[in-house]
TrEMBL record:
Keyword Hydrolase recorded: yes
Keyword Hydrolase tagged: yes
UniProt name for this protein: Class D sortase
NCBIfam families: class_D_sortase, sortase_fam
Species this protein is from: Planococcus shenhongbingii
One Pfam match: Sortase
Keywords: Hydrolase
Taxonomic path: Bacteria, Bacillati, Bacillota, Bacilli, Bacillales
C-alpha cells in the first residue's frame, strides 16, 4: 500500500511537467503562427469564402428576378394591294375574255339590272379579280352569256383590270338552285366564280344557275 502511494507521488510532478511543456509549446506556436503568413493566408481564405457565398446568393437572386426571355414572332407580311381605291357602283373595272368563245365582255362593278344590261356584273360584296378570295361575276344568259354553256372544266377565263391580266382555269361546273348562296362564299385562294341563269333555252325566268368555278393560274 505504501509503495503505491509513493509511485503516485512521483507521477504527479511528471504530469505537471508534461502539461506545462504542452502549454508552452502551444503558446510558442501561437506566437509563431500569428507572426507568419499562415495567419494572413487563413484570414484571407475565410474572407474569400464569405465573399463567395455572398456573390452566389446575389447571383441566385438576380437570376430569379431576371424576366424570362420572350420570343416575339415575326410579323406576317401584309397582302399585296392590287387596287388602292375601291371602284364605284356602275364603274367599268375591266374586261372578261373567254378564249373558248373568242369573246371579250366588259365588267361593271355591281350586279343590279343597270350593270347587267351593259355587260358582266361584279358582285360588290366579293373581292376584285386577282385578289386572294372569291371574285364573283354574273351575266344574263340571253345577252353576254348566251354561249356560256359551251365553256366547261379545263377552259380558261382571262380578266384584264387596272391591276393586271389574270388567267383562271375552270376547275368545276355546277348547276344549282337560284337560292343557293354557296357560290358566293369566301375561298382560301384566288378564285373566279362566273354565274348565269339556267337552262339556257328556258322561256321566262330560269329557276337554276350555271356556275363556273376557276382557279387563278397566272398573272401578268
Amino acid at each position: 500500500m505504501k509503495r503505491d502511494k509513493s509511485e503516485k507521488r512521483r507521477t504527479k510532478p511528471i504530469k505537471r511537467l508534461v502539461l506545462l511543456s504542452l502549454s508552452i509549446a502551444l503558446i510558442v506556436f501561437g506566437v509563431w503562427f500569428s507572426s507568419t503568413n499562415a495567419a494572413s493566408f487563413l484570414k484571407g481564405y475565410l474572407l474569400f469564402k464569405i465573399g463567395q457565398a455572398g456573390n452566389d446568393s446575389h447571383l441566385t437572386e438576380s437570376a430569379a428576378a431576371a424576366p424570362a426571355k420572350v420570343e416575339i414572332p415575326e410579323k406576317a407580311p401584309l397582302p399585296e394591294v392590287l387596287y388602292p381605291e375601291a371602284p364605284t357602283k356602275g364603274e367599268n373595272i375591266g374586261d372578261l375574255y373567254i378564249p373558248k368563245l373568242d369573246a371579250t365582255l366588259p365588267i361593271f362593278h355591281g350586279t343590279d339590272e343597270e350593270e347587267l344590261e351593259k355587260g358582266v356584273g361584279h358582285f360588290a360584296d366579293s373581292v376584285l379579280p386577282g385578289e386572294a378570295d372569291n371574285s364573283v361575276l354574273s351575266g344574263h344568259r340571253d345577252t353576254v352569256f348566251r354561249k356560256l354553256g359551251e365553256v366547261g372544266k379545263g377552259d380558261l377565263l382571262v380578266v384584264q383590270t387596272s391591276a393586271g391580266k389574270f388567267t383562271y382555269k375552270v376547275r368545276q361546273v355546277r348547276i344549282v338552285d337560284q337560292d343557293d348562296r354557296t357560290v358566293i362564299v369566301p375561298k382560301p385562294k384566288a378564285t373566279l366564280t362566273v354565274s348565269t341563269c339556267y337552262p339556257f333555252d328556258f322561256i321566262g325566268y330560269a329557276p337554276d344557275r350555271y356556275i363556273l368555278i376557276a382557279d387563278l393560274i397566272a398573272r401578268e
